[in-house]
Structures are given as C-alpha cells and as structure tokens.
Amino acid sequence: MTAPRRWRFVHLAVLRPLLTVTALVCLYYLLPVDQAVRPWTMAVFTGGLAVVALLVVGEVRMILRSPFPAWQGAQALALIVPLFLLLFADLYYVLGHDRPGSFDVGLTRTDALYFTVTVFATVGFGDIAPVSATARALVTVQMVADLVVLSVVLRVIVTAVQRRRSSTRDSSVRRRQQHGGDQPGHGLDPHGGEGRRGTHRGAQVGHTARDPRDAALGRIRPARLHQVHRRGQHDPHPGAGPHQEQHEGQAGEGDDEAPAAEPAPGVPPRRPSRDR
User: Fold this and answer.
1) pTM assigned to the model
2) Which residues pair with 103 in a beta bridge?
3) Which of 56, 9, 21 is nearest to 154 (CA)?
4) What is the pLDDT of residues 35-65, one digit of tens each?
5) Which of 27, 100, 172, 189 has its CA 20 to 30 A from that of 139?
C-alpha cells in the first residue's frame, strides 16, 4: 500500500469515524436541553429520527459513488448509529428529570446513554428499568427502531458497499479488456471476426517467409529451372549419346538427378556407334 493510499485509509476508515463519534458525544453532553417534556420536545425527537432516515439515504448514495465504498460505509455507520442512540438517550434524560418516577433510579446524561446502549445491544442488565407507562412506551419504540436499524439500515449499507465493489471490479475488467483489444493480436473484430488476430498472424507468417534461408532457396530453385531449360534448347535430339549425357552431368553437377529423356514416338532409339 502506497503512502497516499495508506493516509487515505487512515483518514476515511479511522480518523473520520472516530472524530464523528467524538463530536456527537460532545454535543450530547454540552448542548443545553429543556428538562421538561413539552409538545415541541416530541416534535424535535421525531424530526431527529427523520434526519437519521435522510442520512441513511444520503450515505447510501455516497457509497454508490465513492471509490472506497467500504471506508465510506464505516463513516456512514459512525454517523447514523451514534446519532440514533443519542436521540433516545437525550429523550430518556429529559423524561427522567421531568417525571422522576419514570425510571426506578434517577438518570444523569451518562445513565441515560448507558441505558440506551444496553437496550440497543439487548443486554438487559436490569439495573435501570422503565417504570411508568410513558417510559415503557418509549423503550418499546426504541426496541422496534433498533430492529429496523439492525435489519434494514445495516443491510442496506452493506448491500450498497458490495454493489459498488462489484461495479468497480467490472469497470476495471472492461477497461483492461479495452486496452488489451487495442494491441495487435488481442481481442476480436467488432463485427464478429478475428480480424486483428488474423492480421497479426498474417504479419507473423510474412515475417517468417522473409527468413534468409527461405530467400536463398527461392534464388536456387529458379536457377535450376533455368539450367534445365537451357539444356533443352541446346540438345535438339531427345536421345543423346553417352558423351552428351556425361557432359550434361558435369554441367549440372550439384543439382538433383533428372529422369532420362524418352525417345519420341515412332523414332527408333539411336544405337551407340562401335569402333571398327
């Protein structure tokens, strides 16, 4: 892994999620809240859940466009899940201060966050329990919302990451195929034939035919044919005597043996003369 890629990994997969979670927790502890349950309190809480849903949609779109979908998915979870839990923790804190009998113990901000996380993780220690009907109704809403987050939101984000990875892999494969098809001897003709591959093979055959040994053979064969043609012109008699055959054998020394000439039809073969 190169240095820029390593830094991008640390930035997207480690620093950004950690800074996001830290910023949300600091806002939870520092922002002043009204310690009385009013109608606008529930409206703000409902609006916060709507913001979480919009964040899910926006993060999924960012994952589908990101060159690093897994790291973007980690950033999305680091933003959505803590914000979701802090909304319920803040509501439990306000409810515990406005109506002290809602829980079996008094809740601080840390106690409210702790109770919210135990409900989300389905641990159920039992040290903090809802008592009033309102508190139990809110805890029931959180349990149903936890199931939605775990079964729908988490699955949607993971599916988006996998789809982006597969599309990126397919795009890289198509680019490699396109680059390989531009080179000689690679890829097929767009009309269905092996045009480029055939051209490349033809070039190889032409290169082989231009071998020096083939060129030498090409010069020797016409020379032999020329010698045979000249012998046919200088020898008017098809049935030459032994001296003529010996002379032709010496002239064509080094050539391949040619078959003896046959006499013309109807002409008796000449007999060699004998010394008297």
Assistant:
1) 0.61
2) 130
3) 56
4) 777 888 889 899 999 999 999 999 999 999 8
5) 27
